[in-house]
UniProtKB/TrEMBL annotation:
Keywords carried by this UniProt record: Transferase
Residue stretches spanning the membrane: none
Keyword Transferase: yes
Protein name, per record: Acetyltransferase (GNAT) family protein
Organism for this UniProt entry: Anaeroplasma bactoclasticum
Source species taxonomy: Bacteria, Bacillati, Mycoplasmatota, Mollicutes, Anaeroplasmatales
Any Pfam family the entry gives: Acetyltransf_1
Length: 172
């Protein structure tokens, strides 16, 4: 059975190791440490299948958009992929997202640098894609960004409609 273990001081170093194995070019140390120290709402998790850690997952939102949960650092370790576990972990995260009051799940995806199978994985799991190009968010104008979205309820999912995600500021 798939379950979530929230990040805490005891599992922080291990969680960073798992995150680095899944996303070798990114380092979540700063973000994870802030979460664990309570500087932000901590909705970041290790994902377990029984006693085995199989990946990481997380949820966050941007500014005042409190009904739109964004996937953060969601991934399955290479040796556990293509077994349906990612889809199960995503469904478990949906439950957490509903408990937190989100109505929609979103993913910001860089089509140039993102993991090639991830877009297919999200589409198979009910997400639909729109391009993200916001004039006030300069990096988005490269045309490399997509937002994938899914309703957490049985209702049509409003598109993100190019609202500013402030990716340019985050990159500084
Ligand atoms: C994307 C990821 C989470 C998928 O996890 P997973 O456990 O392998 O996913 P599942 O086994 O549930 O896959 C379900 C379906 O998604 C699609 N899919 C998954 N990985 C795929 C890939 N590499 N290429 C093409 N389709 C893929 C397939 O249709 C698959 O069904 P199938 O195996 O019966 O063909 C995993 O590959 C990963 O962690 N990648 C690196 C991190 C990442 O990109 N994270 C962002 C995710 S939003």
């Amino acid at each position: 059975m798939i379950k979530h273990i929230k990040l805490n001081q005891d599992n922080l170093a291990f969680a960073i190791e798992v995150q680095r194995e899944i996303f070798p070019y990114d380092d979540a140390t700063k973000k994870y440490t802030e979460m664990v120290n309570g500087e932000n709402d901590n909705n970041y998790f290790l994902v377990y299948n029984g006693d085995e850690c199989i990946g990481v997952s997380g949820l966050a939102h941007y500014g005042a958009d409190v009904e739109d949960g964004f996937l953060g650092w969601f991934g399955i370790l290479p040796k556990y992929r293509r077994l349906g576990l990612g889809s199960e972990a995503l469904r478990l995260l949906d439950e957490t997202a509903r408990d937190l009051g989100y109505r929609r799940m979103r993913v910001i995806f860089n089509t140039e640098t993102g993991f090639p199978g991830a877009k297919t994985f999200l589409k198979v799991n009910g997400y639909t894609a729109e391009s993200y190009q916001c004039p006030r968010d300069r990096v988005s104008l490269s045309g490399n960004y997509a937002i994938l979205s899914r309703s957490l309820y049985n209702e049509p999912c409003e598109p993100w409609n190019n609202r500013n995600l402030h990716l340019t500021e985050e990159e500084k």
